[in-house]
Amino acid sequence: MQEEVDSIAKNIAWELTRKMGISGHKLHGKLRRAGRRLPSKVRLDIEAIADAQTRARSATEADKVDMEEVKATAERIMAFLAKQDPSEVRRGFYINFFTELSPRLLVLFAALLGLLVWRGFF
User: Transmembrane stretches, by residue range (predicted)?
Assistant: First the structure.
């Protein structure tokens, strides 16, 4: 059972890296680094898989892992990741980055111009 859960978790971790560009060690690390890039339902599903992976390693907790639920959750996650286009995710990241950066640069240049005018350079 542990090998099966580990295999599912590795597949999900690989797809997160390949499709969404999320780096990190193992599934817990990738989930933490994903932040708001994942919808809340998908985050909860990935968290459930990561918890099942942790439980499967424990001798006392291994019998509490429901493999049918783990497989169904993994299918939902993989269906979401299959819809993701890596270039679209990257484009969205850059658009958001420059959208947040441009007003800050505008304020900085306005302040610099104001300082230069105040000091008599223009």
Answer: 101-121
